[in-house]
Amino acid sequence: MSAQAASPTLPLLSRVPGVAIVLVVLCAIFGALSPGFTTPANIANILTQSTILLLLALPMTVIIMTEGLDLSIGAVLTFSSIVLAVTVLATGSVTLAFLAALAVGLCFGLANAALVALLDIPPFITTLGTLGIAQGLSLLVTDGQSVVGIPRSIEHIYSGTVVGIPLPIVIAAIAYLATHALLYHTRFGTYVFALGGNREALRVAGISVRGMLIRVYAFGGVMAGFAALLMTARLNSAHPTAGIGMEFDAIAAVAVGGTSFERGNGWLLGTLLGVIALGVLRDGLNLLAVPSSTQVACIGALVIVALFIDGLRSER
Amino acid sequence: MSTIADKTVRPQLALSHDVMQAFYRLLAVALICVVLALLSDVFLTMNNILNVLRQTALLFLMASGLTLVILTAGLDLSIGANVALSACLSASVIKLTGSPLLGVLTGIGCGFLIGLANGVLVTALRIPSFIATYGMMWMLTGVTYYYMAGETIHGFPASFRHLGSGYLFGVPMPVYVMVLFLLIGGLFAQRTIWGQQIYAIGANPVAARLSGVPVERRLVLVYAMSGAMAGLASLIILARINSAQGDIGEDLTLPAVAAVLVGGTSLFGGSGTVAGTLIGALILTLVLNGMNLLQINSSWQPLVTGVIVLLAVWIDTRTRRIGE
Predict the structure, then answer these.
(1) Does A193 touch chain B (CB under 8 A)?
(2) Residue A293: which of B75, B146, B317 has the nearest Cβ?
(3) Long-range contacts of B176-184 (CB under 8 A, 24+ apart)
(4) A162 - beta bridge partners?
(5) Got the DSSP string for B113-167?
(6) Would the CB atoms of B77 and A131 count as touching at under 8 Å?
(7) What does the pLDDT look like over A98-156, one tens digit per residue?
(8) Is the CB of A296 inside 8 Å of chain B's CB atoms?
(9) Do B121 and A122 touch (CB under 8 A)?
(10) What is the DSSP code (8-state) at residue A242?
(11) Is any Cβ of chain B less than 8 angstroms from the Cβ of A72?
């Protein structure tokens, strides 16, 4: 992409993707500022904490590639997590609770899909509306309180390990590889690229654009359901504000990762690096005792810097 | 072309499309009022009517600037967070200097600068407006929480509080501000070249650019105006509740978006009026006020507002498709 625009003086640097530079610079800054940053335990911590965000950022990449957006994904995660906790308390069955959480995610995904694909309502306003609905339902079901007292077995999903690797990392790796396969090795993936890049061509080729959009948004909902499993396991409870703003982090990770908001230019590996860059930023700021509200402002600044670098490079 | 035949037969009906749209919306207002008057004894009390008017004024001030943004087919999701930061900064300035005038200037100036930043993100960095302003919303919230650190600033001079809670001839002050900006906004949009250029950008940005409209400059102006109106609204809230906290305008963005859309401004740009937004703000306020009077759990409010937004856009999409 930027290979043609490579300037003769800095051929190597302009071939390196912006997100990799961002990641290296962030690691260098925090490595220098706080001694605890480079310890293996902290690095494992960054990767584990990034898994929930990755589960949201993967479908967000696909959705943004179709020139869409899902603002509801954080609120849907919250509501799924609450339904999971309430179900497990009511029935005692962890499996049933998992399925209920996935079903909630799927329902919201399908609702977004129906509004976007069938009623032609723009994605950002559709998902802004469903964000309000999911947030309202979360508050109504819980009355603003945390749902606590869920079985310890759920906690193991976040704290357990498989052959020494934390379970959330295994789950996130599987999700990443599956999305990668879906995007780059199936016809579905090819059509996703076409949905953002050249929708008319897809239509002319006789592919149902609506059918594609429905699948894309349903994918987003289901992944929010999976993320709810990890979130509930991590907090060992469900809280009606747990996922507020997660959609902002997910969009930021996708943007930092170099996926364009127009023309269907997407890069899944960039999103993975973007998620880790956000994880590094949050962790580094935590070590420096920066309050979480200020971290959001820093993430916004990071996105602007990343977009600015990308803009400069594509103009050259 | 049967439409031409219709026009020649009954020209007055074809001309009055906008009037009919406003009429339907006023009918909705009347209907809601009748239902609420039947369901609640409190609704028709003077106290509640003045309260509804005051709330409408506040929502309209935020929504009127937003109307201009949506007319250009953009969106400003940062206005609620803008209100919070502007209110907190202006509260600090009033506390520090004791001068309401400096506080007013700070509030409007802060809102204006935030809007300007939105405009630059949208035009110079080419970030879609709903993403840029959504990111701005979270950044502003972060800055406000950091700045306030959980503190509350309260107790302002009476001359400043008058702006939000005072009366003139029995009518709340915010209502006068609302009428003033209804006139300014309406005249600006309908009767000035800049206003017409804003409509042109929303209807067809390429055509607008080709006919010499400075699209980038007008877009920056529109976001800056939306920000300044949020700054003004923050002062009204501040003067009304007499205290500033970090979460002050948080849940006002969605109702403001809903007010613009219910008021008949198209999300796709190019059509709508500031006066329509006033009716939209009135409808939204009546619905939310009604839910309060009927003692419905306030958790329902974001849900209901979300549904109203979706309904309004759906109707808009349908009418446009029929129009085509």
Answers:
(1) no
(2) B146
(3) B177/B57, B177/B61, B177/B232, B177/B236, B178/B56, B178/B57, B178/B60, B178/B61, B178/B278, B181/B60, B181/B61, B181/B64, B181/B229, B181/B232, B182/B60, B182/B64, B182/B274, B182/B275, B182/B278
(4) A165
(5) HHHHHHHHHHHTS---HHHHHHHHHHHHHHHHHHHHTT--EE---HHHHHHHH-E
(6) no
(7) 999 999 999 999 999 999 988 888 898 899 889 888 988 998 888 888 888 888 888 88
(8) yes
(9) no
(10) T
(11) no
Where is pLDDT greater, at A179 or B302?
A179
Is residue B195 a part of any domain in this protein? yes
- Chain B residue with minimum CA distance to A290: B146
Spell out which residues of chain A touch residue B315, defining contact as CB-CB under 8 Å.
none
Whether B33 is in a domain gets the answer no
Exposure string for A124-149, b = 16+ CB within 10 A, e = fewer: bbbbbbbbbbbbbbbbbbbeeeebee
In the prediction, which pLDDT does B231 show? 94
- pTM of the entire structure? 0.84
Closest CA to A254 of A166, A178, A179, A158: A179
Token pair, residue A313, equals 């490079």
Q: Is the pLDDT of residue A316 over 50?
A: no
Spatial distance between the Cα atoms of B89 and A193, rounded to a whole number of angstroms = 45
Chain A residues touching B129 at Cβ < 8 A: none
B128/A262 CB distance under 8 A: yes
CA distance A83 to A101: 6
Query: Which of A59-63, A265-269, B290-294 ranks highest by mean pLDDT?
Result: A59-63
pLDDT at B13: 45
What residue numbers bound the domain in which B58 lies? Answer: 51-250
Our count of domains for chain B comes to 1
pLDDT for A242: 85
For residue A34, give every residue at least 6 positions away whose Cβ sits within 8 Å of its Cβ, in sequence order, or none: A284, A287, A288
Judge whether B292 lies within some domain.
no
pLDDT of residue A14: 60
User: Which residue shows structure tokens 């008017």?
Assistant: B53
Nearest to B303 among A122, A136, A297 (CB): A136
Q: Do A129 and B309 touch (CB under 8 A)?
A: yes
**Pick from A136, A248, A262: CB nearest B135:** A248
* Domain extent listing, chain A: 49-250+262-277+291-306
Contact B119, B222 (CB under 8 A): yes
* A121: contact with B, CB 8 A cutoff: yes
Chain B CB contacts of A143 under 8 Å are 299
pLDDT at A19 over 90: no
Mean pLDDT of the A239-266 span: 84
| Torsion angle of the four alpha carbons A36, A38, A43, A44, in this order, in degrees rounded to the nearest 10 | -70
The stretches in chain B having pLDDT less than 70 are: 1-17, 322-324
- Record: contact A140-B145, CB cut-off 8 A: no
Nearest by CB: B317 against A120, A245, A255 = A120
Say if B143 falls within a structural domain.
Answer: yes
Distance CA A20, CA A277 (A): 9
* Nearest CB to A131 within list B141, B143, B306: B306
**Chain A neighbors of B302, CB-CB under 8 A:** 132-133, 135-136, 139
